[in-house]
Amino acid sequence: MTSPLFRRLSTNSRNRAFKIVILGQNGVGKSALTVRAITRRFIGDYDPFLENTYSFSCNIDGDTVAMEIRDTAAEDENSRLEANIKWADAFIIVYSVTDRCSFNECSRLKILINSYAKKPKSTGQNAGACTPIVLVGNKTDCPQERMISLEEGREKAFEMGCVCFNEISVREERDSAINILKALYKQCRRPGRRAELQQRLSCPPLSLSIPSSADDSADDYAALARQRGRRKALYTIS
Ligand SMILES: Nc1nc2c(ncn2[C@@H]2O[C@H](COP(=O)(O)OP(=O)(O)OP(=O)(O)O)[C@@H](O)[C@H]2O)c(=O)[nH]1
């Protein structure tokens, strides 16, 4: 990915951009999601060994928001993964709905985030419990190859304490990727939102939300939460 649209960042950048790391097993579409979010384009093939951090800005409800997004490489060794987790403010964990292995990998990544994520300054809480994570099931354009149902994805998001869950097709959908980034930002950076989120995530009931593109799912999600004896989904991003 060498497009001049991208500005590569040094790892010790001091700007105050919102930092997001994309994690997931190889081949799930991390690079595709990153490129789609920044350029709205879908490019078929990406170098699986490249890890890149990109800066860009986007308009969120009239505000220009600076973001840094790190697309991690498939072969990242654990020490690199640890560094990436420590760097981030928030995470997108991606699996492919056509690949059960990639789905199982999400739980391992959540455990690593629990171990390594930045500790919130304001509280002595477990860092992982307060770390905003979005779970994304990609490749919904391959229904014949689907191995993970929407319900399984939602259940996993509950288990992992994710703030959002959505299924998308990076290939087919132009705006889903950027909507996920915006949703994550809104959950974390709006004035007062981060503290509220941390407080709620530190409680046993999980707080979950649905990006605006999945409005229809919000009621289902809330119903699932009630069925499981958990609090109704706390946020619906508009
Ligand atoms: N059908 C389909 N293919 C996709 C989609 N998103 C990505 N792909 C394809 O999946 C393959 C892997 O995509 P990448 O973006 O390189 O995946 P990655 O997770 O970055 O892979 P690594 O760099 O190896 O970790 C490529 O051939 C993409 O074209 C999608 O939504 N639908």
Can you describe what's shown?
The chain has helices at 30-39, 78-87, 100-116, 150-160, 176-189, 193-201, 215-227, and strands spanning 7-8, 18-24, 52-60, 63-71, 90-96, 133-138, 164-167, 209-210, 235-236. Residues 1-15, 200-222 and 228-238 have low confidence and may be disordered. Helix 1 packs across helix 5. It has 238 residues and is α/β, with parallel strands linked by helices. The structure holds guanosine-5'-triphosphate. Guanosine-5'-triphosphate is lined by residues 24, 26-32, 44-46, 48, 73-74, 138-139, 141-142, 169-171.
What attributes does this structure have?
238 residues, two-stranded parallel sheet, disordered C terminus, binds guanosine-5'-triphosphate
